[in-house]
């Protein structure tokens, strides 16, 4: 039986491995800067802001075959929290078994139980299998919205120019 569960500290190496696999799948194999120490601190440190649910392999003692990494966001319009799904990944050999659907259903259940307004995420425009899957569960794209990101040297230049008062 498949088990979707909250990650524990001993899962960190497997989760990091899946993060690297996801980067390869998304055609960014060298983009991951995360480490086991950073991931452990963000998941289980003094002020954890990130959550992970994992899919245990249905075969006893087998490796974790998928994960959903998420954190809370806030809707000023709804006046309540929501879940932002940063990454959802299931190993290729385990796809088609319903694990991705179970992970998303778990997050939706958390949102409903806690009174959150939404679960949202981004998907690469070329990832048709994922887009089709998301549509099949009733998710809809946010028409008219584009994701913007400030990072690297641009973030440094812009952030260093800020006048921040204490």
UniProtKB/TrEMBL annotation:
Domain N-acetyltransferase: 2-160
InterPro entries per UniProt: Acyl_CoA_acyltransferase (IPR016181), Diverse_Substrate_AcTransf (IPR051016), GNAT_dom (IPR000182)
Keyword Membrane: no
Gene3D superfamilies: 3.40.630.30
Keywords tagged on the record: Acyltransferase, Transferase
Domain of life: Bacteria
SUPFAM superfamilies per the UniProt record, alphabetical: Acyl-CoA N-acyltransferases (Nat) (SSF55729)
Protein name: GNAT family N-acetyltransferase
